[in-house]
Amino acid sequence: MKPSLPYDFSTLSIWHRTTRSFPYLHSNHLADVPASAKYLIIGSGISGVLTAWNLVESGIKGDDILIIEAREAVSGASARNAGHIRPDAFRGFPGYTAFHGPEQARKILENERGVLDDIKEFVHVHNIDCDFNLTTTFEVCFSEKFVTEAADALEAYKRAGGDVTQVKFYKGDEAKARTRVAGTLCAYEWTAASNHPGKLVQWILNDAISKGVKLWTHCPVTKVVKHRSTGDQFRWDVHTPRGIVATETVIHCTNAYAAYLVPELSHFITPNRAQSHAFIPRHSLSGENTLKSTMALRYDVGSFFSVNPLRNGTIIFGGTGIRSLSENPEGPSGFMNTFDDTTYSELIAENAKREFNDLSREPQAVPLRHGEGLDHVWTGIIGMTPDSVPLVGPIEGLEGQWICAAFNGHGMAGIFRCAPGLVKLIFGKPWHDTGLPECFQISKERIERFKEPTESSL
Ligand SMILES: Cc1cc2nc3c(=O)[nH]c(=O)nc-3n(C[C@H](O)[C@H](O)[C@H](O)COP(=O)(O)OP(=O)(O)OC[C@H]3O[C@@H](n4cnc5c(N)ncnc54)[C@H](O)[C@@H]3O)c2cc1C
Fold it and tell me: What is the structure's pLDDT at 458?
């Protein structure tokens, strides 16, 4: 698919709608860009702002760091997700093993577990008001096929030395009672969290700006080319509609859009549009009946609904939004292969409504009151890679350019370690010091492995 810049007029998520007074939302939106910056970060999602924050923590002067954002601040997936910080406890193990082998697969899952601990600590230490709620999550299994898949994944992860001591398993009536989901055959439970991702990322950005970091919004980077002069320390010229910035270091935190500026990645990073919904619960899911845990309602691999009850009682439904792969006429899964987050799928919204009604378990005859039920729908773009893990590190052949992107819909469970890891690499530390799984490392070989053979090479 042809790479793209972020679309104008994107939908606003519930997180955007509840943080419109963020003072840096439209920072420097009319000003020309500075002529130079030592470190230039493209993208103000969690990858970009956390990279800036960690550069400052590592001793770089805030003044030396410039973040450029195509739209308003934090307008990408980081403030469009379903508000879940849900480490994969075992389920993705076979899929990761198929690409990267069991040891790397185990490291990927352990990394996600560690990220939850890191975010919990970060929010606590800085006393961040982002509705962080450490709770548990259920994997709710609806089909025999998924029951088997989940059991096999758990066993395989255990055999590979994975720690599953904190995963609890329930079946039959106990699973139904604990999850309060009528049709479940069995369920797994482990620790996860819910938060307001917009408030979390805006806090980090605000803190970085208070330490001197500069932010230019509504300013898409259109190309990065070799610096025009040889007489100074700069290596790259970063072009925008409001001028050119000369810089030593470019850090691409552009998620699904990365290939627009690094065309070598156009076959490797592809966009998937995901959709989320905010529901105002009925009697059966409010007050003393408020859900305490988050959930993934799993019908099949690739067919699921995520359910995230927020502290204020609103329930967020995300996931692929389908019960079976044949349910979505718009694409092979609930995710659409597009950069267009200006609109949403009515069909997926209807599916979410059906799921919400089933979860509510109120008699059909009881109508929704005005204000109950579906309150808001939005979409966001996830950056996918063919081997299901992100790209982190220096871009070979483009010395001074770095990337931290394409989190395959798992960024909230990964970036809190990837961005600090990238900063260590920028300071010349070896990969080992990042603590990240080796398979996250970007390399020419990894990118080219997935290139379609051209006719001449056949
Ligand atoms: C609906 C939905 C549900 C999700 N659910 C979950 C979940 O349950 N768990 C989980 O872990 N993750 C989830 N994710 C994924 C998670 O939100 C992302 O992985 C994460 O936010 C990526 O962060 P990022 O900073 O890398 O990218 P983004 O937040 O997308 O930030 C990239 C930024 O770069 C900007 N940009 C791009 N190109 C340019 C350019 N050329 N010039 C200037 N700026 C540019 C964009 O405008 C954007 O602001 C979900 C995502 C969506 C959309």
Answer: 42
